[in-house]
Amino acid sequence: MTTPPVPLPAERIPPGTADWRTPDAQRWLAAVPAKWAHPLWAVLALVVAIVWELEAGPVAACTSAAPCGTDWPGLMVAAVLLLTPYWVWRQPRLAVAGLAIGLATLAMEEGFSTFGRPSALGFVLAVAFTTAGIVHRLAVAGRQRSLAVEAAGPAVQPLPAAARTFRRGRLSLILAALALACAGFGFWQAQRVVDAYEERAADATKLSGRVTALDQGDEDADVLTVTADGRTHRLDTAYPEDFPVGSRVDILVDGDRAVLVAEPYDVFGWETLVLGGSVAGLAFLANGVAGRVRSGRLRRGPLPVLRVLVREDPEDSRTWVYAADDPGGLRPVLHFHSLYAFEDDDEREDHPETDDDSMAVVDRLKEVFQGGAPTPPLREAVLYGVPYAGAEVAFVARDDEDDDEVAVECSVSEVRPAVAGRRRRGPQSGRRERPSRAADEVAAGMTPTAGPRVWRAHGFSRAVGLFLLLVQGGGIWASLADGPSWTWLLLAVGVPWLVTAVATALTWRITADRDGLWVTGAWRVRRVPWDVITSVRHADDGIRIGRAKDSSVGISPAGWTWLERRLGHEPGAERVAEELRALLLLPELRPQEEAPVGRQGIPVGPPLAALSVLWGAAVLLLL
Predict the structure, then answer these.
(1) Is the per-residue pLDDT at 421 higher than 70?
(2) Positions of the region Disordered (predicted)?
(3) In a shared domain, residues 610 and 477
């Protein structure tokens, strides 16, 4: 029986407030970006393009005419490029500015010759693809805004008094100040090193000499041997490739100290601090300013209002919004994090919550660790503001079904549509997985067959296996390349697990026949008769088959549930688990024949382990 929503007192519903009904809400929800414009694809394209360009792009050599000193403008461009993928996801308008800075820098350095290099051309194409996706997302947000205004009608109302005093972005701005202060400290320290060098260089003797040797000194540092003015000098260098044996170099000699004019000082550590502090500071600063601007936009004047239903997720404090005529809370429309707003300081001190989305989950961590509270009931609410992807809103609802007090809450994160493909679409969907379909519902899509049924690794599962295979090969190379070290212990622990995971993800197989299941994992094929199976479930990106009086049989990983849902696909392993459960509960669906040996599967863990050993031996021989 469906529990009716907690009603909102009639006097708290402004006159003329329209119900946001399911047809209008579904039209709003249907106006979502196309799959190609999902930020994930743009971020992946940008990251690959930036890494490719950094790896393949030209690097200016250190010379006496152009020494390798500090390059603060270039460092700031690097900070913007590092931030841009994050902004593509969170701040699309700022991302456009970051992309423009990256393109302008590339054009100023190389001009039209940029198009002659594949890596630079790849970067340009990634920027174009990302920009197209951002423009499409912003256009869709404008469409959602128009649909929401149309559903709200002509009625507008002032924001509740408590919401007008609510301020956003305070914590982000504080964190931004701390991070930027760290960046400023790094800049100050680097400049001290530069100034000290320039003072000593003014009194030092400049000599020209020839590189006579290149070897490794203490701590694996490259050392140049330079003969100048009849004396031999040994100088550390970070870029030995710029100074081949026989080339001429300029050095500065100050007593017993000598340095290359081309490499006057080393402030890499301080530059790293400046870069890290700048990236973190600018990210927090952008979030704080954006929060202030959006919340300020709510307070500018009367706003459209919509009557809706809301429910708070007990797991992560997310507020889910439903259409006014959806008392069962079956189809969420949008979601955001929210916090209470108060009219006076006394009430605020009684509820000392933070005002940033990065901390909105903290209030519920205790309940989560203790197993969580039951799903709260739906509440009638009035939504203030125009909801669209990226907007900020406020709402009024009763604080609790047993309390007559009406609370005002303001969003502390952007409005996001409850699109298909999320791990969970609302708190009613369960804590970790959506409820499994009933066996009869699954059976309706299955046709009884005489021959064995076979389920095998699908595309997402194989993609996970290939990725882990690359990680395994790279890890073996990295660990063995430098000779014996403590990393070999990590190799001994990690490679067996990786071999098992790779073999499973690439070639797992489950065959159902008359008498039971054949489950092919990484190392063996196991027989599980029907009469000992107690349960079949999808868990932890795999399939678990429970057995009476024995441990369960598992296949994991069998895909990547989070990514599959994100991309709008039903997880393959979840579908297999549901069909196996239907066979378990409905014997008439089971195959009538026994599976021959050729259809029972072959484990590939042993040959993959042998290949891993051969790869490790090849690495040792090659290096």
Answers:
(1) no
(2) 418-444
(3) yes
* Mean pLDDT value across residues 77-83: 90
> What is the residue range of 319's domain?
10-17+301-422
**pLDDT for position 483:** 65
CB atoms under 10 Å from CB of 49, counted, come to 22
User: Pairing between strand 403-411 and 394-400?
Assistant: antiparallel
Quick check: 378 and 311 in contact, CB under 8 A? yes
Task: Tell whether 48 is covered by a domain.
Answer: yes
Domain shared by 135 and 38, yes or no:
yes
Q: Is the pLDDT of residue 505 over 50?
A: yes
- Give Cα 21 distance to the centre of its chain: 33
Task: Say what the pTM is.
Answer: 0.62
Identify the weakest region by mean pLDDT among 205-219, 415-429, 548-562: 415-429
328-383 residue pLDDT tens: 888 899 999 888 887 654 444 444 444 444 444 444 434 443 344 456 788 999 99
Q: Is residue 450 part of a domain?
A: yes
Burial of 109 (0-12, 13-18, 19+ CB in 10 A): middle
Q: Are 101 and 164 contained in the same domain?
A: no
Single out the residue in 154, 173, 189 at which a domain terminates: 154
Tokens of 478: 């990295």
Q: Looking at the structure, do residues 520 and 618 belong to the same domain, yes or no? A: yes
Beta strand 303-312 pairing with 18-19: parallel
The per-residue b/e assignment along 238-255, b for 16 or more CB within 10 angstroms, e otherwise, is eebebbeeeeebbbbbee
Confidence band (pLDDT; 50, 70, 90) for 149? very high
Taking the C-alpha atoms of residue 247 and residue 513, their distance in angstroms, rounded to an integer, is 75
**What average pLDDT score do residues 186-203 get?**
86
More confident residue, 540 or 600: 600
For residues 85 and 136, membership in a common domain is answered with: yes
CA nearest neighbour of 461 among 534, 538, 529: 538
3-state secondary structure 210-232: EEEEEEECHHHCEEEEEEECCEE
Q: Are 534 and 550 in contact (CB under 8 A)?
A: no
Same domain, 320 and 266: no
Strands 516-520 and 525-529 turn out to be: antiparallel
Nearest to 31 by CA among 306, 334, 318: 334
- 498 shares a domain with 353: no
Q: At 328, list the tokens.
A: 């069962």
